[in-house]
Amino acid sequence: MELIPYPIGPLNPKVQDVGWALALFALIYVLVARVLPRMNRALELRDDAINGVKERAEAVRARAESERVGTEALLAEARHDAARIRQRAHEQGSALITEARADGQRERDAVVADGRARIESDCAAADTELRMSVSELASELASRIVGERIAAPVEQGH
Length: 158
Prior knowledge:
mainly alpha, 1 helix, about 0% strand
């Protein structure tokens, strides 16, 4: 039996074919209606799991970035402190070197002054000793030249 009484060819379905098609459609509709929400829930759980992991990863990445920035700030501060300490040590070392040079210069000047004073006193003593024995040396030299003994004159006042 045909559904439409006019001959329209293959577009005119038989009633039992339409019944079978409706029954299969109803069965598939019921199956999809029951399975589709479960599939949607599974897909949502999967999406939440993926996005949750992604969000947690982003949170961890953001926290790591903030820690990196903090660490870089600490390192920069530590480098600045180290440079300041090196500069202070350099200045202190320069001051100590300058002070040591000044002390050495003062000691050198004291030693030179002491040496000059000693030389002057030795020269004065030698001069005095020579002045005292000049007449004796002169008379001895004259005695050698002349060949006779000449007496040294006695100085008065020294």
